[in-house]
Amino acid sequence: MKITWSRLFSSVAVALCAAVSACGPMEDELAADDESLVACGAALAVRAVTASSDDGNVAANVLDGDRNTRWSALGKGSTLTVDLGSRQPLCGVSIAWYRGDVRKSTFALSASADGQTFAPLTSETSSGTTTRLRTTLLPVGATGRYVRVTVNGNLENDWASITEVRVRGEATTGGGTGGGTAGGIGGGIGGGAGSAGTAAPVFNGSTAYVEIGDDDAYSQVTHGGLTIEAWVRPDSLSMSHREGSGYVHWMGKGEAGAHEWTTRMYQAGNAESRDNRISFYHFNPSGGLGAGSYFQDPVKVGEWIHVVGTIDQTTLRIYKNGALRDSDLLSGYSIRPQNTSSPLRIGTRDFNSFFQGSVARVAIYSAPLPPARIAAHYAARTGNYDAAVLSESTLVGYWRLNETSGTTAFDATGRHHGSYKGGAVVGGAQFRP
Ligand SMILES: [Ca+2]
Ligand SMILES: [Ca+2]
Ligand SMILES: [Ca+2]
N or C: which end of the chain has fewer CB within 10 A? Predict the structure, then answer.
């Protein structure tokens, strides 16, 4: 019966591919997901993930955005349990399997309100045709705080081995519940599953910033690539706390002897005729000259600009509003990215300059996002932008900066929350791209 199902599914998949005539080449651009075929809601923020056992490949590896790391446990009935922090409407579970293009794993999904009593939702056998995330839809009306994957072996052996998991929920609509929702979701996760509302912080250009501790996932060398994405709103074209030839760092990971990447905006009257230039750089740890890509367009005070910087093994790129604008070879400046211990800061890099304005919806991915995905994110700016970000399997950090109280800048991936410092005005701006 399973073979019949498998054959049926394969022929359906082939038929769909033929119909859209783009399945093969599109697969990489779909960022490791099959959402073009089966999709629901958005990936929900996760508070914790635990497993019945492991062999040293721990449960947390299913949330690191890297399909080269996995959770593994020996024995039929091994379980992986995701804690969403509070009870949520559920619509699907996306799983990427270790050796997923070779093995078919048999698994069951269940949910629980209390982490003790689990109600079965559905059971299935994995495709055996892909190592990418594949979504299993759940029965209409499913809810739960805890979602459990029980693996009952695979066609090769009794190992349970999963590289990535996302629990998906129906996106809530409207941003009107803003602060209340953020507080309601377990107190640990800002925003909510769907719309993240419109709140954004204000940085005063002299002391205010957000700081997030070092995480190796924010370094190019850790996974061989990186994407930095943010929305930035300058409130001045002539900010006073500038450095160098007349620029401010509005976000960056770099300190003396521990430089990695940074973003800049050049200010009016700078010494290099770079007024309004917005740039993305990578440095060697010692600093000095960096490889940088930029765009230099007229900027209006109060304008929200979507900025994405990517780095692969050889090349740095910058995108503005979904479009590639510039690229530069790391080798052009002899840059060899390193993993350092410098923190990530938003509003400044290392206190030598400060940004005046707002920065919101900062995301980091452990790979260069494909151009089509970057364009799709920009296109989603007036729709469910949050869902577009959370759908990326390589997402390793997402600070919506949509808090309306407190000093914690929540990371929607649950990996690494940050802190508002130096008088940053939480919820002082409206994110309206
Ligand atoms: Ca992983
Ligand atoms: Ca590090
Ligand atoms: Ca260039």
Answer: N
